[in-house]
Fold this sequence. Notes:
It is built from 9 helices and 12 strands. By secondary structure, the protein is α/β, with parallel strands linked by helices.
Amino acid sequence: MITGTTKLIAHIGYPTxxxxxxxxxxxxxxxxGIDAVVVPMGCRPEDYPAFLKLLFRLSNIHGAxxxxxxxxxxxxxxxxxxxxxxxxxxxxxxxxxxxGRLIGDxxxxxxxxxxxxxxxxxxxxxxxxxxxxxxxxxxIAASLAQAGVEHLAIFDANETTATALLDxxxxxxxxxxxxxxxxxxxxxxxxxxxxxxGMRRGDPLPIDIDRxxxxxxxxxxxMTKEITPFLEAVRARGCAFQVGTDMLxxxxxxxxxxxQFPTTTADNLRAIAKLG
Length: 276
């Protein structure tokens, strides 16, 4: 039930037809008696800067979930951003500080790292390879760096994109060993597909499967299918792995903490979500 005291969390993006967050957050709020609601709000890019500022003038606004195509442009509209958001170069959560300042963070990578850790893979001191240095790859790189990986290898078909991520990582994590240019997974403890490869039938595999050790933990970000061709191939090699939707469910407890709501577990969220 929405009342005059309900805290409003806007889910802003364009278009909104594929939004899943309301189907996860709102059942959780209802079940736990939390007086808050997530509402999808479609906003075109040209209207977004003015809209975000006006949105946070509402007396009952509590925060916003930010999705495509606004994650990057949000950075210039905030008063304060986390290190993870700065390294990622994008933001997917904004809350109103007690002093009226807009505070932003990025949780895509946090969800990925929480999932890996919960599955028993040690991140601190690990050697990790990320294929894809776009938005989600940059966010995962930021969170892996924050979690204490020793070596981070970045590969992207666009060398400029990969080098820009390297520069941001070195700025905020000067002790981290960062390399770019190779997608060879040999010798890595953690390998991540952060490219769109796997979304469409017939896509090539993002990484040479024959070079992945059975002891390597493999992560996927593609969510269109739980077991993508890439995960099917690494599973056949005996690798432990994480499916794309795990990143989504694992980041929501971090969001809840950011918004200062009672938190929960990814398993609990999966059990009560109404995704159909």
